[in-house]
Amino acid sequence: MLATFMVSIEATIVATAMPRVAGELGGFSYYSWVFSAFLLAQSATTPIYGKLSDMFGRKPVLMAGIVVFLAGSLLCGFASSMPSLIAFRVLQGLGAGAIYPVAMTVIGDLYPLEERGHAQGMIAVVWAVSAVVGPLAGGIIIGRFSWAWIFWVNLPFGVFAIAGFLLLLREQIEHRRVGIDYAGAVLFSVAIISLLVLLTETDASGWVLAGLAGLFIVTGALFIAQERRAASPIISIELWTRRLIATSNTATLLAGMALIGLTTILPIYVQGVLGFSPIVAGTTLTALVVGWPLAVMLSGRLYKTFGIRRSVRAGSLVFPLGAAVLLFLTPHSHPAVAAVASFLMGFGMGLVSITGIMLVQESVEWSMRGSATASIIFSRSLGNTLGAAALGAILNVGIAHYGTGELAVKLRRLLNEPTGLAQLTGQQDVRLVLFHALYWSFWGVFVVALLAVLSSWLIPVATGVNDASARDETRVAPRDKVDAGG
């Protein structure tokens, strides 16, 4: 929980403080790359760390990730320019890529299926708390201390987490000489980074986008060829194409797309269309971080009462139900209606996510559990990137469709200003253009949410834990590799 809190709160603290940091360091044109650099490094390395934890054990990989993350945090505080800050954020992301997936794998090692929901619920609570505490902490640090402390605040958490793993986590690893697939790791990283940059930097020139697309295709093809012939591939094609893992990853990716769509467009709706403050907009999203951990913590009880198959199928319907609430929003709705949509989608996402992780972990032996868990985390991250790009494109198309040339230009200009959303209250024509464009985005979220549910129903739920209706495919892995001291 300490390690997860360290990574999760970092994002919200930095988001609050970055305007001040950019103002002091200069180079505001690099602003978005402070976030993108971290996320690119984290996303590209998540599956690699999962494989390394299968090869060398959870503890050394997890502790190495924390050390790298802390080194990046320390250097970020000493950054003298925006380019140097971006470089140190890459180092942070390289460490963060290990922490969450390997921590979730440790939970899979330590807890049997019927107890894992409660343990992972505690991790979900950490994310919820960090979402609330992070912005407040960032504001206090910027107001009273040097901005460097938004990064240095990670240091005590990381030190205590390392001490805890050293003292309490004991592993029994079968020592064997294995070769690391360096070529596969490099090719995968280049392919994924080029894809993510292609999706996020849509304003780049056509030649740049074409070059990124070509780089992704070439390195992706070379990566697949390398993994098929590697003795110990960094990412097992055979593992990722198993029906249970493939369908779980697909459902998680689609759910991640819908959820990022909600978190990006709902604040625009509440502030720009309804005319409420950023605090009210943030409150509507707080309902999401309440629903998610609540679903995770209730999952174990639901499984015992109704069985896993019925729980996940009935519970997953809550996800598109929340998205359907978005379709009833109007220019005069109360923010509470938006909060209901957030809560329902958060609850549905929590249940889909936790079920996918647990079933995937139970379907493989210890030596593949890290890779399997990392595949789920990576799919969610990729879904977030795809969703942000897709929903942003839908919003832009909607603005061009509903606004005349002058209105569309005026609306885009306001959206690019720091206080532009607040200025929409007295401009009814522009406000209505924004609402209709957002309504297209709401439909996009709803369609993707439906696809996520359909994918979740294709997951071959099968386990011997309190689910007599499904016992056909999942084999329960041995649990004698790891124990906790204390």
Q: What does this 3D model show about the protein?
A:
With 486 residues, this protein is an all-alpha fold. It folds into three domains: 1-170, MFS general substrate transporter like domains (Growth Hormone, Chain: A, Up-down Bundle), CATH 1.20.1250.20; 182-231; 236-475, MFS general substrate transporter like domains (Growth Hormone, Chain: A, Up-down Bundle). It has 18 helices and two strands. It has a two-stranded antiparallel ribbon with strand order 1-2. Residues 1-464 form the Major facilitator superfamily (MFS) profile domain. This is MFS-type drug efflux transporter P55. It is a multi-pass membrane protein. It is found in: Endomembrane system.
Tell me briefly what this model is.
This protein is an all-alpha fold. The protein is built from 18 helices and two strands. It is globular, with a radius of gyration of 22 Å.
